[in-house]
């Protein structure tokens, strides 16, 4: 994250994004969009939101995905559409996020006070605020980025201990030989597995990093996955009738946007992965039955050119029927 303010603010809003639950990607996009508009506190277009998230959070989001999530947020009254192409956070949502952020700041201050108390107990009372900042930026955040999910093991004591980490000793070397033992003891005591505030603080950082990394896998990561596997990853996707009708340009339902997003994603990944689409027999039967029903119903209609034009102008017609009446009016 490049913007220091954005880096601290996003931590407030990522703790409720569970990356192991269904819908996590939508929640990730929602969190980033809301956080950016909350920080900006002014209207922006979709393109400006996408570019802003990339600049402030170093996260790359697709414009179509952001637009889709923005529409959901408008329905939920979390975002307001100011004009044809600009959006801002609603007053109610801003108040809620203000409160969430303030609560997060209070919790973070409690953790900071805990850390400082551990230092003071061991006779370290010089530059303690600076030491807290250095602990976060020079040790804790890089450690979380390097260790990832293994950070959880610091709170169980099963496999990892701070004193075994070379990065811990490298961090301590920033300070005088006389102070190192006390600072070392203070940091070890700070990582108390029974302290819920410290666990929340560390896991909040961990969630934020996971969220941003998941939204912006680099080309290097993709190449690494391919090299480890010895070949491009294979994705087997079982599609339903909505996607089949979309491909045949016969669908005008609420699933068209989702189908378009799936096709766009497949197009984006084609050069990096082997994607195979499958259709189950039950899906084929469902598609055949739907088409047969529609065909039988349409054949009973005496569709003149005038009637066909009227139906098409009404706009209240499915994709399949639209094609039928379009053909009849020719």
Short description:
This protein is mostly helical.
Written overview of the protein:
It is a single chain. With 330 residues, the chain is mainly alpha-helical. Among the domains are: 4-94, Arc Repressor Mutant, subunit A (Orthogonal Bundle); 101-213, no CATH class. The protein has 15 helices and 4 strands. Strands 1-2 form a two-stranded antiparallel sheet. A two-stranded parallel sheet has the order 3-4. A hairpin with a 5-residue loop joins strand 1 and strand 2 (87-89). The longest helix has 31 residues, at 91-121.
Can you lay out the helices and strands and say which pair or pack?
Layout: H1 4-13, H2 24-40, H3 46-57, H4 63-75, E1 79-81, E2 87-89, H5 91-121, H6 128-147, H7 166-172, H8 180-190, H9 196-214, H10 219-229, E3 234-238, H11 241-247, H12 256-269, E4 274-278, H13 281-299, H14 305-314, H15 319-328
Order of helices and strands: HHHHEEHHHHHHEHHEHHH
User: Can you tell me the residue ranges where pLDDT is under 50 for at least 5 consecutive residues?
Assistant: 1-12, 14-22
Fraction of helical residues: 55-70%
SS strand fraction: under 5%
Indicate the radius of gyration in whole angstroms: 27 Å
Features:
single chain; 330 residues; mainly alpha; Arc Repressor Mutant, subunit A; two-stranded antiparallel sheet; two-stranded parallel ribbon; 4 strands; disordered N terminus
């Amino acid at each position: 994250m490049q913007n220091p303010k954005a880096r601290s603010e996003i931590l407030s809003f990522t703790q409720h994004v569970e990356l192991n639950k269904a819908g996590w990607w939508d929640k990730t996009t929602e969190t980033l969009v809301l956080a950016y508009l909350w920080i900006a506190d002014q209207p922006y277009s979709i393109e400006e939101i996408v570019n802003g998230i990339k600049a402030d959070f170093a996260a790359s989001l697709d414009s179509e995905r952001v637009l889709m999530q923005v529409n959901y947020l408008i329905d939920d009254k979390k975002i307001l559409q100011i004009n044809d192409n600009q959006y801002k956070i609603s007053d109610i949502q801003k108040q809620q996020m203000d409160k969430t952020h303030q609560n997060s700041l209070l919790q973070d201050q409690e953790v900071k006070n805990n850390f400082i108390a551990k230092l003071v107990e061991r006779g370290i009372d010089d530059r303690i605020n600076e030491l807290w900042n250095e602990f976060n930026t020079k040790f804790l955040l890089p450690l979380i980025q390097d260790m990832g999910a293994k950070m959880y093991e610091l709170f169980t004591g099963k496999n990892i201990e701070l004193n075994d980490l070379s990065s811990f000793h490298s961090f301590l070397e920033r300070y005088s030989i006389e102070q190192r033992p006390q600072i070392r003891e203070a940091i070890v005591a700070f990582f108390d597995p029974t302290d819920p505030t410290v666990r929340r603080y560390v896991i909040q950082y961990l969630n934020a990093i996971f969220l941003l990394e998941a939204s912006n896998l680099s080309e290097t990561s993709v190449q690494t996955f391919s090299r480890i596997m010895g070949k491009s990853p294979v994705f087997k996707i079982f599609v339903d009738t909505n996607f089949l009708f979309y491909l045949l340009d016969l669908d005008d339902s609420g699933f068209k946007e989702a189908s378009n997003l799936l096709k766009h994603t497949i197009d984006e990944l084609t050069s990096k992965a082997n994607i195979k689409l499958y259709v189950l027999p039950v899906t084929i039967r469902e598609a055949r039955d739907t088409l047969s029903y529609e065909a039988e119903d349409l054949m009973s209609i005496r569709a003149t050119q005038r009637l066909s034009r009227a139906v098409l102008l009404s706009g209240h017609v499915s994709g399949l029927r639209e094609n039928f009446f379009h053909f009849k009016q020719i």
